Amino acid sequence: MKVVDAQVHIWKPESTTRPWVEGAHSYAHGESFSEDQLLARMDAAGVHMAVLVPPSWEGNRNDACLEARERHPDRFLVMGRVDLSKPMSDAELEDYTRDMAGVRLTFRRDLDVAQLTGGQAAWLLDAAERLSLPIAVYAPTSLDRLYEIARQHPGLKLVIDHLGLPLDARNDAARRQVDYLCRLSEYPSVAVKATCLPNNFREEPPFPSIAAVVREVVDAFGCERVFWGSDISRLPVDYADLVSFFVNGAGGLEGAAREGVLGASVLAWLDRKAK
Question: Into how many domains does the chain fold?
Fold first, then answer.
């Protein structure tokens, strides 16, 4: 059984030649986190592969993740970033993403949310649907807009990151957001990442609240559309404990459901050859 972490960040320190986004130090997960640090944690926890997501504080840079993928093609996939202010043709986008499994978009700050609600992302969503290019989105304040996108783009492979949970949503508030998110399960082209749930449900192993949430989203979306993940650089519990929780069934997963959530489903979803 292959264990695949559906979301991790790696990044390099800020420098004069590698500036971060203005104000990024207020939300960055630290000064740096390297592929070697990540691989050591993965090996210790028994994780075979991870999906690398360039962090938002580095802007639209993909180089660190793509270099790691090139060095370790058996360990990493990349969901890269795209500059929405610079539309590309289908051919240009396909070439730009040739070494990526898909694209990751973040709409958390007001300026970014405006790109989603104001239509600046439309060109990418249209092209991604035509190209069968998976799009992962973190837009915790814009779930209504994601409903519209799913309805308007039935062929778009859309992944909702972190179950759409705001970073500051805790316990009951987070559970209500999950209930709302599950309405999106009616669209078969929508999947979800059950990532970094200990950030929203502050508890120790065996994570009873998280187990209930995992059961709810699997019941709604099916195991083929739910991907576990850690977002390890902001994970408030031990990485090995979270991995063990999912490996041991996450409160009831077994058989094909457990295998799917653990990694088989995200690998199938991000297979761009399977159109």
Answer: 1
Q: What is the pTM of this model?
A: 0.96
For 235-262, give the DSSP string. Answer: -SS-HHHHHHHHHTTTTT--HHHHHIII
Residue 51, domain CATH: 3.20.20.140
Name 193's bridge partners: 227
Indicate whether 274 belongs to any domain: no
Q: What is the span of the domain harbouring residue 29?
A: 4-269
Please indicate, yes or no, if residue 275 is contained in any of the structural domains: no
- Indicate the angle between helix axes 35-45 and 63-71, nearest 10 degrees: 50
Rounded (to 5) percent helix, strand, coil in the chain: 45, 15, 40
Query: Does 38 map to a domain?
Result: yes
- Among candidate residues 126, 147, 145, 143, the one with its CA nearest the CA of residue 135: 126
Task: Read off the pLDDT band of 177 (50, 70, 90).
Answer: very high
**Which two structure tokens, joined as six digits, stand for 109?**
């700050």
Beta bridge partner(s), residue 67 = none
Q: Is residue 160 part of a domain?
A: yes
State pLDDT tens for residues 204-237: 999 999 999 999 999 999 999 999 999 999 999 9
Q: Are the beta carbons of 121 and 142 closer than 8 angstroms?
A: no
- Euclidean distance between CA atoms 228 and 242, whole angstroms: 10
